[in-house]
Amino acid sequence: MARIFLFGFAFFCLINKGAAQITQTIRGAVYDSESQTPIPGAKVQIYTADTNEIFRTLTDFDGLFEILNVPIGKHRLVTTFMSYSLNDRTIEVISGKENVLQIYLSETFVEQEEVIVSGARKNGEVINEMALISAQQFSVEETNRYPGSRSDPARMASNFAGVQGADDSRNDIVVRGNSPLGVVYKIEGVDIPNPNHFAISGSSGGPVSIINNKTLSNSDFFMSAFPAEYGNSLSGIFDLKMRNGNTNTNEFTGQFGFLGTEVLSEGPLNRGKRSSYLITGRYSTLSIFQKLGIRIGTDAVPTYGDGAFKFNFPLKKGGVLSFYGVGGKSNIAILISEQKTYSTELYGEGDRDQYFGTAMISSGISYKKSLNDKTFMSSTLAVSFDEQHSHHDYLIRHLEYNGKDTNVVVDSIYPLLDYSFKTTKISGFTSVNHKINRRNIIKFGANVDFFTYNNIDSVLNNNNNEFITRWNYKGNAFLIQPFVQYKLRITEKMDFTAGLHAQYYSLSNSLSPAEPRLGWKYKFRKNQSVSAGAGMHSQTQPYYTYTYQRYDSENNPVLLNKNMDFTRSIHTGLGYEKTFNKGINIRTEAYYQYVYNVPVTVVPSSFSLINQGSGFARFFPDSLENSGTGENYGLELTIQKYFDKSFFFLISTSLYNSTYTASDGIKRNTSYNGKYTANFLMGKEFKINDKNILGIGVKVTVAGGKRYGYVDLEASKERQEIIYKDSLFNERQFKDYFRADLKVSYRINAKKFTHEFGLDLVNILGIQNILSLSYAPNLANPSAEPISVKNQLGFLPIFYYKIDFKFRKKVVVEK
Question: Residue 287: phi, psi to the nearest 5?
């Protein structure tokens, strides 16, 4: 493989040597950031980095622009319009793909001539104008350069201050000490099911993301105290934006790599009407190798595939209709029974065969229209489906010595458990933005979800003579979330927002009638600003926990926790920000969050739902009541240089404390209280010649170790899983986490092709970070303590090759 890589590298360098100057087309649209209406007559200018050329154009009646024959490279793009603030950004132009941009301008407080504000760069600004604090722009171009991120939006977000990954093998993220259960993903305003392969019921993460980064435009990530339109979350909101396909040129992207083999195609459906398509698909590369008979060291190969599409149709009188979809399916079989050679290092549990699979899809239709120059409407109707199923067969085995080797012999296999959880959801979302005047903006709307649940689960009892049904539920429920949000521009430098969010869930008859949200931001001299925010939030419990059943004295099933209420929180924050020249930005934020109404056991214990939500295990709730509390507070610092000409860095650190109190009244560390986390990322691109670029990126992460407790050996042996002593839960902590990643890429711009070779070396030092303890009986020594340490991933090299090109000549249609 290394020889092929080097040969291809040398070949593409030779064929590009001495070629003529390569150019590309830049196109896009300019919008009012608050009313979302297009801005005709805006001036768009490109200042080239190397040749000092200037390209200029004006947007048309629909706010569209196009600039032809722009040289490849990094250039400065400046957009201006009378009575609006300047938008100044850096764009990267490559040969194989056109740049299609969406640019948002903010109206100035006082009407004046065309505004030119020195240094008013828009790097890092969130799209949602109602967000004044605890929000971060998710820039696809910026975050795609982060080493170790695997082109996964969640892993990219784990580099932000206040966010950390819970597990190297999964992309669950902990936001300000909160459980990953509180993270919600949205597309086109609608909540979508967990968008990850091998996702456990109720979780928000998984090993491999279904979301393809290539289908996204810049998006927003919120860390609590978010605007009123977002609900059913206590920690984080990923408001993902799917981009449109190219409206004028057919383009193709292909990628082959360790994590998947994928293709993406986009282009116009009707150039005259500016309709477009975007379709992508991916399949796991390791399973392709397996089907070709190429062994990769284990038979437990994960099989997964995913895809996405978006068809966009501009209509008459300014309306836009879109059809979109994203989904994936995954399966894995971990067959311990086929491993004949004895080893203490096994996938999964060492006492059973496991068959596990998941699926999710979310597809819908959205309609957007500017009703006039001050009012914008957006509506989405979507259908979602997600499913998780698993089957376990228990093994009875012994060791047998044949005179040369010690082999494992399986005496018997019998079913241990089987479950299938399915959820179908119909969602509707509508919002209206109305700019009353320059000072006052209002946004209101509602999100309605209708659920159909089908949960079935049974497990063999401790005597191995009868199956116990833990879930057997078919039913419906709906979740309604209306909201209203108001923004007042008090002065040119001061903004204030106020909103109300409400929430009702029918299955548990839970109601949160009014959740106030407040935000304030003041900009002052030398590009500085201070901000503050507060909000009340509520969140449903994982849906499958409401339908867990036990049996009464007459052997009738009883849903123990159907009437669980929302978990609720009050979140406050205070921030400071300063922007320097050359794209350098410093942000710091202090926050406090009080969590209450948390489900805990009726019988006094250390259990709290506040600790659930990461890993591959479901949880089985006893009778719960909403009397638990929690507390999160901390200080965050981000020092960032946005990727400009050839260099970027990001330093983010968080000092925090996360505690909870369960039904026994004792205050403890939550399972996510690592106390601190810090990331250092740096990247540099070296221009080999006019067309070829070498990129090198480094990332170092340090964090406090995971919390754990003292193992109850007798209870663990009885239940054949790790059981911690209740009174000492989370009293211990593993050693601190440390990981270093290195990413190397080489990009080659041919006339109509862009080739990119990449190697992402995750945990390049091979540090053995501890993940957890696991229950692992020792067949060679049955009297030994059946507890082993389970480490995080070691060194993982991830390679890829990507190609972008136009596969049909552009046709210009005269109007």
Answer: -70, -30
